[in-house]
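Quick start: what a row looks like.
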Amino acid sequence: MKETAISIRQDGKRIWRGKCASDPQLLAAVIRKRAPYVRRIVFETGPLSVWFYHALTAEGLPVICIDARHAKAALDMAANKTDANDADGLAHLAEVGFYREVRVKGFDSMLIRTVITARRQLLKMRLQISNQIRGLMKTFGLVVPKGAGSVFERNVRELLQGEEKLARIVVPMLRAWSNIRHQIAELSKQLAAMAREDQHCRLLMSVPGVGTVTATAFAAAVEDPANFRNSRAVGAWVGLTPRRDQSGEVDHDGHISRRGDNQLRALLYEAAAVILNRSRDTSTLRTWALELKDRLGFKRAAVALARKLAVIMHAMLRTGELFNPRGGTPVAA
């Protein structure tokens, strides 16, 4: 976070290596001084990769962000794990061209992703606090009835009447819970406003089970439909396709890879669960999913439906057409 190791190679040899403060402008100055005719600048995916990529690109440098998992196999060959040796390994990969470039999202897409992440974290905190309140009160024989939102708060306050000592402990937690609840509502309003202003999000929300959060997350992750060679590639990119294990006579499919955007994969799975359990539409997509559920069970059917949703949603972004409930394919808007 504070320093970045740099290694420069030319004609199969290392010509310089050192360290620099983790600031794109300082990094650009060092690179221009030590490698004025630089051909490739390679770094791994990480917490600073988005900042580095866009800032160094603005400096006019040929930067490439590569998959950290792909680079790990080569970097593990070094006898000692140090930042300097990692920089040497990355420079060698850049020199021979043995790397897998990844697409770096734009700042607008990352902003949407940040809102979704913050909202999801607050939802977890709200649930944890409410469960903690229920557990503390249950110890003293005060069982909070089922209910969410204002109903939960009202039930807690009614049970605390006449329990002054316990109220001194629980009420501050209840206030924190209430404040988090209001902040979640504010972030939800921001997401709703973003979805209303984005044509792609409005298009995606025509799919059953896909709401504001899933639509904005998918649009921000995909950005441009042309980033994928075809719609089927999106399912693999999100990590919803089975892993294959083939060697000699052994050849079988395993669990899904679970690679890519964990948050988007979870949202697509939730949308699939809504279609299977709550939706009452009569679309061909839901009929297909219910038949799959009867044969394979809920979890497998939900994963298959989530993968199909990713494919359909990408096709909708590419064609600009609404969801077709009769065939599971887009129709002209």
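That is the whole record. The first strand starts at residue 3 and ends at 10. DSSP finds 13 helices and eight strands in the chain.
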